[in-house]
Request: fold
Amino acid sequence: MSPVLALAGRHLRRRWLASALIALSLAAGMAVFLLIQSHIDLTSRRMAGTAQPVAVPGEAMYVTSRFFDAAEIASLQRIWGAITKFEAGYVFDAYTSAGMHRAVALAPESMAAGVLPLSEGAWPAEPGQVMLPLSLARQTGLSVGDRFTTFIPAPPGGYLMPVRHQVVALFTTGFGLLETPVYSALDAKLRPGVRGPNLLIVGGGAVSIPERTLQQIYTRLDATLMYTSGHGHYLAGNLAKAALAGGVPLAMLIFLMSGLGALNILLLGFLQRKRSFGILKALGASHNEARAVLMLEAAVTSVAGASLGLAGSAAGIALLRASAVGGDYRLTPASVSLAVMFTVGIGMLAGQIPGRLCRDATVDQLLHNRRVYLDTNPSCAQCGRCGGF
Amino acid sequence: MSHALLKGINLTKWFGIGDGVFAVHNVSLDVIPGEFVVIVGPSGCGKTTLLNLLGGLDKPTHGDVVLNGQRYSKLGETGLARLRRRQLGFVFQFFNLLNDLSAAENIALPMRLAGARPAVINARIEELLGTVSMLHRANHSPHELSGGEQQRVAIARALANQPALVLADEPTGNLDTKNSEEIRRLFRKLNVENGQTFVVVSHDGVFADYAHRVVRMTDGVIGDIEVKAT
Reply:
């Protein structure tokens, strides 16, 4: 057996706990990456399946969520007064906040509701029936069957009319990955100092709305998102983008952290064995052979980490499918390949630094446990301000 | 005069720490095959630095070393590693055995690096362990061996590839009187019976009694060379 293989193998066996920690660090990163990826994948599949037929109620839909002061309410009421051709009962659903709670509800016609899985209840069939996000229901203590009152701006007078609603369904967005960016986007234009919107409106027109009126709504209500019938995929796309925007950086960050963890342990493994590598070089091992011992250790622990990560994510997926969150979570070959590539790549990258330090260090530096530097330029060692390794 | 096995030519090593210091300054030293050379001198006089330069473990600021016609300055890192692997053996004060490996595996390591076949390695391990009287401890880890035993394993390891030259840095510096005597006798035996060439750096004055030549160093230069009767 090659001495490189023998030494790496012996080290991994003797220091099995440190080796296991490297593998676990990488495995954790990979498992979280795969879980996030499978959630994004599930969301995409759901959207692809539901966005097409739902489209926009009538010819336009709008979502408004922000803090309204009295003058704006009056302005809003004037605009609403101008819109006269909505079908009765489906014209608006408007909800005010209740104390510190953000009052969020979606009208049955809302496309956003169409892409979200129900955790309890059934789709609203009648005007006045609403679905609430599970998190909001928990915060407010509302459950399916409960009734509550909100205030609906009633055209043409423009006053707020108290209307009773009944909760008929609760929906979940899984880990909250979808809720957070969507709500954040809606809150983005909040005024400084205002803790949350006091009004959320989801509305749709069953008949045509004059273009001028649409423009009026769009330009005067700066937190209003406007969708027309030509934008059936718009919201779905936005949600997917929001999931990606939140999920991918998170997964990358987790990969980075696990890579740093692996680097830390691999570096420590080298620093503790400086003298051993010095002996190895003194006995005639080339610089690259000495480096190969560390790279081999990094490769073995990375592959072990990838295997553990795969097993862990498979178990996580199975748990998710069986849990209340539910959903057809699955691991795709593409995501698994990507995750394995990333895990092994990050592990090998983490092995590069100790490997390079070991390759470039002189026998004397290693044998006498002197400091080693990433830059082999003698002036680097003479400066020594960084302290070396 | 015999052809020199090892030639140190105007060796200088300067360390640029603080105002800078010459650890070795313009030292030339020849060693002929079968010779037993002992380098003595006070602490900090540059003995170990000279040995490291002669063994290719460190690079001189000026000067060069030639071993069996191979000039170190002409060899790249890989060439120098190959030379250390095949033509040099090292014995250190602190034994420097790899703790992850058993005594036999430590001895096998240089042969494995040289690409020897397993059958050859096994036969050679047995022969060397017999030479250093350590056959009964072959499968023990270094931490299970006494200092004297570890040094004997280290000597066997140094001889594994039948090197042209063995360089030893204070080989008895970490041993008690009895073990020191055994190691000195072992060196002497290997030199007389096998014709093994040795360059030994030592504080141990008794070692000089075994030498063909005693090189005395002071402040990085050779003070005098005493040729002993053989």
Notes: Residues 128 and 174 of chain B are 22 Å apart (CA to CA). The interface with chain A takes residues 16-17, 52, 55, 57-59, 77-78, 81-86, 88, 90, 92, 96-101, 105, 109-110, 112-114, 157, 161 of chain B (CB under 8 Å). The radius of gyration of chain B is 17 Å. Strands of chain B lie at 6-15, 21-31, 36-40, 62-67, 70-71, 88-91, 165-169, 197-201, 213-218, 221-227.
